[in-house]
Amino acid sequence: MVNQEFKVIVTIENKPFINDPEGETIYQELILKNNYKNIKSVRTAKVLKLIISAKNSKEAVLNIRKMCEDLRIFNPLVSNCEVNVTHDKEDAN
């Protein structure tokens, strides 16, 4: 089977019980002060956009998750790491 290229989006965010000072500042200093009263909270996250060559999307996800864990790109004690494949590799730029 020939490898394909997959666009993978990795989202890393603090677990719900961990403070998010950046999100709280955005909420308090921008959103509430500009009268967006219907917004109830803000949480920030880091996003990595990668293109990987793999046999299929499942292999792509497994390889990216392993890389994130091996390289300690996120701290599993305080962060959640979500890995999603999209099929449009052009969006990674």
Report the helical percentage.
25-40%
Instruction: Give the amount of beta strand, in percent.
Output: 25-35%
Mean pLDDT: 93
What ranges have pLDDT less than 50 throughout 5 or more consecutive residues?
A: none
What does this structure look like?
By secondary structure, the chain is an alpha+beta fold. It has a domain at 1-14 and 45-87: Mth169, Chain: A (2-Layer Sandwich), CATH 3.30.1280. It is built from two helices and three strands. It has helices at residues 21-31, 57-70; strands spanning 4-14, 45-54, 79-86. It has a three-stranded antiparallel sheet. The radius of gyration is 17 Å and the shape is elongated.
Write the layout of secondary structure elements.
Elements: E1 4-14, H1 21-31, E2 45-54, H2 57-70, E3 79-86
Antiparallel strand pairs: 1-2, 1-3
Task: Supply the key terms.
single chain, 93 residues, Mth169, Chain: A, three-stranded antiparallel beta sheet, 27% helix, elongated
Structure in a nutshell:
The chain has two helices and three strands; from the N terminus they run E-H-E-H-E. It has helices at 21-31, 57-70, and strands at 4-14, 45-54, 79-86.
